[in-house]
Design goal:
6-stranded mixed beta sheet; Rossmann fold; 2 domains; globular; alpha/beta; 46% helix; 4-stranded parallel beta sheet
Length: 313
């Protein structure tokens, strides 16, 4: 099922009291470098530092009172665990966040600071899923997937909807591709609120499952997870992939040095903090900039949760 225009608008209204309407910034210098007119949707300024707050809030708001009373659970060592913890805290709901034992202490502490109940699992997907299933069985908590959940996808799409309200005549919208929730939501927003706006994904060569999935027409998996863009190591799902297949024009892959270079440019020229995953769509544009000359282009900067002691430059 592909959500309607009304569903995305309703989500935007529903989550508005709980999220920031993030700014859209531009840079004349980056326009000169790219040869296009660029607009950056700064979800690095979102609550908890990433777009994922939108989907987390929307998903919890859609639960019944009985479901809210039982709580929510997800498995995540990254931004979605923090987002679900903070969203649940805001709505008076208990959130159980399953985190692998390999997760950095700083991420575990962030989940706790947002009010999440941390459950440590084995550092494998099977281990994480097992612990999450146990909590669902014992507590009756509702499992919320970080990207393969329709309410989450619709919530993530509100970032692009806001951007197109500010800049309705964009020719292209660039988004990073990880688990597929953000790009699926972005593609829905472009369909309903754009004027022929095409959506293009940016993806590292090291984790190019979405690129291969679009080519083959079925969900492909990654053999390696070798990329500095740690937020993009996740796989597409059976709920978001049909939306991506129907509405995303193409995915451009980028090399690791291109990601780091794009990240440095944004730090240097725009004076804002973004994480490596956020730099991937900008890197994708720069890689093929001749094709996009003189076009109006929106780029979603997905988040700014970066470990300052482990910068790639």
């Amino acid at each position: 099922m592909i959500p309607t225009r009304e569903i995305i608008q309703e989500a935007g209204n529903r989550i508005a009291p709980f999220v920031h309407r993030t700014p859209v910034l531009s840079s004349r210098l980056l326009d000169d470098i790219s040869g296009a007119q660029l607009f950056f949707k700064c979800e690095n300024f979102q609550k908890m530092g990433a777009f994922k707050m939108r989907g987390a809030i929307n998903a919890i708001q859609q639960l019944t009172e009985k479901e809210r009373n039982a709580g929510v659970v997800t498995h995540s060592s990254g931004n979605f665990g923090q987002a679900l913890a903070l969203a649940a805290n805001n709505l008076g709901v208990t959130a159980y966040i399953v985190v692998p034992s390999s997760a950095p202490a700083v991420k575990i502490e962030a989940v706790k600071a947002y009010g999440g109940k941390v459950v440590i699992s084995e550092p494998t997907l099977e281990g994480r899923e097992r612990e999450a299933s146990k909590i669902v069985a014992e507590k009756g908590a509702v499992f919320v997937h970080s990207s393969n959940d329709l309410n989450v996808i619709v919530g993530q799409g509100t970032a692009a909807m806001e951007m197109l309200q500010d800049q309705p005549d964009l020719d292209y919208l660039f988004s990073p591709v990880g688990g597929g929730g953000l790009i699926a939501g972005t593609a829905l927003a472009a369909r309903y609120f754009g004027q022929g706006c095409k959506v293009i994904g940016g993806e590292p060569f090291g984790v190019d499952d979405a690129y291969r999935s679009l080519k083959s027409g079925k969900i492909e998996v990654n053999i390696t997870t070798n990329t500095v863009a740690d937020g993009l190591k996740t796989q597409l799902g059976d709920i978001n992939f049909p939306i991506i297949k129907a509405l995303v024009s193409e995915i451009i892959r980028v090399e690791e040095p291109e990601i780091i270079s794009a990240m440095m440019l944004i730090w240097e020229r725009m004076k804002i903090v973004i994480e490596p995953s956020s730099a991937v769509p900008f890197a994708a544009l720069l890689r093929e900039k001749e094709r996009f000359k003189n076009k109006k282009i929106g780029i979603i900067l997905s988040g700014g949760n970066v470990d300052l002691l482990k910068l790639p430059f």
